[in-house]
Amino acid sequence: MSPHRPPLLLVACAVVALLPLRPRAAPVQPAYPGDDAPVEDLLRFYNDLQQYLNVVTRPR
């Protein structure tokens, strides 16, 4: 083995450490809480839905 090549284990650990830094392809769509949900849950849903739509439909 050449002394200039990093060990395979070190490269594998670096790749695993950097995996969480990848951006997601798209955010998760918020789940509708139901018709009988409290007002606070509906407000949270509609705020999350607006944020989701802003991210999904933003110009690239």
Automatic annotation (TrEMBL):
The keyword Endoplasmic reticulum does not apply. Residues 1-25 form the signal peptide. InterPro entries: Pancreatic_hormone-like. Keywords: Amidation, Secreted, Signal. The lineage of its organism: Eukaryota, Metazoa, Chordata, Craniata, Vertebrata. GO terms for cellular component: extracellular space. The keyword Hydrolase does not apply. Belongs to the NPY family. GO terms for molecular function: neuropeptide hormone activity; neuropeptide Y receptor binding. GO terms for biological process: feeding behavior; neuropeptide signaling pathway. It comes from the Eukaryota. Pfam families: Hormone_3. This is Pancreatic hormone. It is found in: Secreted.
